[in-house]
């Protein structure tokens, strides 16, 4: 498990694999331009297990908050605690940075992810109607550290 506090620490090959995972397996993938913006900005943290998946946070030091933007485990590797390990490895770094809360949004019908986040201690905060580009609503969720 690799954890980087700056995406530019990834090799080009690793960066491309993460983009591929995102494009292939996420319901709402980012464009290359969005990923490149993320790569060139310093306030992101990624945990990454080559061939298995990744977990990406945006770090907001002003609000002392880490925003979980994406977590993905490849379909054939799910339910083996890889997601938990990706999250936990990132969490150790986030706690070392003295951030105080974790925040995320998740589509209301993504029951597996909602179960996963509740298992990690996140609580539903509020419903954002028509949050996604396809009109789907999202739960925002919060965990205090
Ligand atoms: C959500 C996701 C990252 C979980 O990763 P994972 O490695 O399969 O999960 P883990 O094995 O670490 O599971 C940890 C806990 O999550 C919950 N969970 C995971 N998969 C579940 C499932 N299919 N059904 C119900 N609960 C589940 C369980 O509480 C589990 O704990 P338990 O095994 O003690 O019951 C994975 O399903 C995934 O990549 N989904 C697609 C991408 C996505 O929706 N990401 C979130 C939105 S950004």
What is the annotated CATH architecture?
3-Layer(aba) Sandwich
At the fourth level of CATH, the homologous superfamily is Gcn5-related N-acetyltransferase (GNAT)
**Which molecules are bound in this entry?**
coenzyme A
Please report the number of helical segments: 4
User: Would you report the number of β strands?
Assistant: 7
Shape: globular
| Beta-strand content | 25-35%
Mean pLDDT rating: 95
Order of strands, widest sheet: 1-2-3-4-5-7-6
Radius of gyration from CA coordinates? 14 Å
Structural class computed from helices and strand pairing: alpha+beta
Report the major sheet. Answer: 7 strands, mixed
Q: At the third CATH level, what is the topology name?
A: Aminopeptidase
CATH class: Alpha Beta
How far apart the termini lie comes to 22 Å
The SSE string, one letter per element, is EHHEEEHEHEE
| Helical residue percent band | 25-40%
How many domains comprise the coordinates? 1
Low-confidence stretches: none
Commentary on this structure:
The protein is built from 4 helices and 7 strands. With 145 residues, the protein is an alpha+beta fold. It has helices at 12-25, 32-40, 82-96, 111-119; strands at 2-4, 44-49, 53-60, 65-73, 101-107, 123-128, 138-144. It has one domain: 3-Layer(aba) Sandwich (Aminopeptidase). It is globular and about 35 Å long. The longest helix is centred in the middle third of the chain and has 15 residues, at 82-96.
Structure keywords:
single chain; 7 strands; Aminopeptidase; globular; 145 residues; alpha+beta; 7-stranded mixed sheet; binds coenzyme A
């Amino acid at each position: 498990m690799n954890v980087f506090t700056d995406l530019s620490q990834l090799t080009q090959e690793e960066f491309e694999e993460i983009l591929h995972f995102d494009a292939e397996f996420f319901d709402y993938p980012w464009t290359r331009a969005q990923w490149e913006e993320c790569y060139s900005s310093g306030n992101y943290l990624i945990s990454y297990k080559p061939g298995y998946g990744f977990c990406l946070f945006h770090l907001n030091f002003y609000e002392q908050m880490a925003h979980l933007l994406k977590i993905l485990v490849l379909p054939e590797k799910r339910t083996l605690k890889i997601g938990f390990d990706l999250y936990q490895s990132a969490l150790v770094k986030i706690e070392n940075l003295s951030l105080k809360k974790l925040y995320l949004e998740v589509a209301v019908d993504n029951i597996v992810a909602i179960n996963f986040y509740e298992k990690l201690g996140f609580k539903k905060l509020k419903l954002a109607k028509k949050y996604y580009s396809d009109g789907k609503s999202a739960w925002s969720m919060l965990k205090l550290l």
